[in-house]
Write a structure and sequence with these properties.
Strand content of chain A: under 5%
Number of domains of chain B: 2
Strand content of chain B: 25-35%
Number of helices of chain B: 3
Number of strands of chain A: 0
CATH topology of the largest domain in chain B: OB fold (Dihydrolipoamide Acetyltransferase, E2P)
Order of helices and strands of chain B: HHEEEEEEH
Shape of chain A: globular
Largest sheet of chain B: 5 strands, mixed, barrel
Structural class of chain A: mainly alpha
Distance between the termini of chain B: 70 Å
Radius of gyration of chain A: 20 Å
Order of helices and strands of chain A: HHHHHHHHH
Oligomer: heterodimer
Shape of chain B: extended
Largest sheet of chain A: none
Chain lengths: 249, 148
């Protein structure tokens, strides 16, 4: 185990991860601001109006990144949940519970901006089509995960129960993603995907990708801050926490 | 086999079984998960009879007729193979246009006229500036005239 170049298990210890996360957080905030400002500038001032939807389409610069993040964060959460169940590492469970509120926020943003967009364009706030319904289920999965973990007092048991729920819910992610392909939906198909060239003007695409990067950086920064708080809370009896300079003063 | 490997095998196996179950369930519910029926499906009798359902397709070019009261409209929904005439009283969404996508909810009458209670616009996933759209339209027109 010691002949590896990087010993990944070293960072699985809350004691080593806590200061590392603290060092990384300001960088991710800086990147959030940089990508976010560039993305908003392109989105509002550089990207042209859309031929069909006029100025109203610009909500895409929030809606699509939020939807991508809501799905991706769930995958990351399930990944940590699986690692936690398999390796029995404490930090994995903490990572999963740190990601859940941000994921729920992204799912909510996606539904909310989608409703605001749907009313003027489709003519309705909400329809029960496969894409919208499965995204709503994702939002409820996040809420269920948070509720389940808070309902169990013992942190290690809460992690295990949450991990099982997170892993069961992972089947929903491909359903959300492919819903517009598998069934007739009111929601249009994907404009950007890995298999074909993007169906949007270059500057619109750049604005959207920059905003997506900003959402990534924001999610990482916030989740790392949250995981540090969780580490302090759960390890408060450990000796190294008492030694922390920021807690001594 | 270490206990850790056993746990990962259990997680992997569990996910595989769950995925399979989800696939089977979705497959079984296939017909209930469609948001709308196409005119071809309606013509084939796949749509529920006597009940409210949604049809989806394109608004046929030149088919939109407004009644004198200004609110009642008639248009034809087509999927380029089959057509269904639709009547609707109410406000149409901004994106409702001839040649563009539409989803209408309502009942199919005896005469084959679809009485809609709600009309939604369905737009596509292409986003482009008006100039580019104009260029695409011109190109399409040119392509049509070239064809014999």
């Amino acid at each position: 185990m010691n002949n590896r170049i990087i010993n990944w298990f070293k960072f699985a210890s809350p004691q080593t991860f806590y200061p590392l996360a603290g060092k990384m957080i300001p960088w991710f905030w800086a990147l959030t601001a940089a990508f976010g400002l560039a993305g908003l500038y392109i989105g509002f001032f550089v990207a042209p109006t859309d031929a069909q939807q006029g100025e109203g389409y610009r909500i895409i610069f929030v809606h699509v990144p939020a939807s991508w993040m809501s799905m991706f964060i769930y995958l990351v959460m399930a990944f940590w949940a699986a690692l936690g169940l398999g390796f029995n590492t404490r930090l994995s469970g903490m990572m999963a519970s740190a990601l859940a509120p941000t994921g729920a926020l992204m799912a909510f943003l996606s539904l909310w901006t989608g409703a605001l967009w749907g009313k003027p364009m489709w003519g309705t706030w909400w329809v029960w089509d496969a894409r919208l319904t499965s995204e709503l289920i994702l939002f409820f999965l996040y809420l269920g995960f948070i509720a389940l973990q808070s309902a169990i007092d013992d942190a290690r048991r809460a992690d295990k129960a949450g991990a099982v729920l997170a892993l069961v819910g992972v089947v929903n992610i491909p359903i959300i993603y492919f819903s517009v392909k598998w069934w007739n939906t009111l929601h249009q198909g994907a404009s950007v995907s890995l298999t074909k060239s993007p169906a949007m003007a270059q500057t619109m695409l750049w604005g959207m990708l920059l905003m997506a990067l900003a959402f990534w950086m924001y999610s990482i920064a916030v989740s790392l801050t949250r995981v540090r708080a969780i580490i302090l809370e759960r390890e408060r009896h450990a000796g190294w926490v008492d030694e922390l300079p920021e807690l001594k003063s | 086999m270490k206990p850790r490997h056993k746990r990962f095998a259990l997680i992997g196996g569990g996910l595989a079984v769950l995925g399979l179950a989800a696939a089977l369930v979705l497959n079984a519910f296939q017909s209930n998960l469609v948001f709308f029926f196409t005119p071809t499906q309606v013509a084939a009798g796949e749509a529920p009879k006597g009940k409210s359902f949604r049809i989806g397709g394109l608004v046929k070019e030149g088919s939109l007729k407004r009644q004198p009261d200004g609110l009642t409209v008639q248009f034809i929904v087509t999927d380029t193979a089959k057509e269904i005439p639709v009547a609707y009283t109410g406000i149409l969404p901004d994106l409702f246009r001839e040649g563009k996508g539409v989803v209408a909810q309502g009942k199919l009458g005896e005469s084959g006229l679809f009485a809609a209670s709600e009309v939604l616009a369905k737009h596509d996933e292409n986003y482009m500036p008006p100039e580019a759209q104009h260029a695409v339209d011109q190109a399409n027109k040119a392509a049509k005239t070239v064809k014999p």
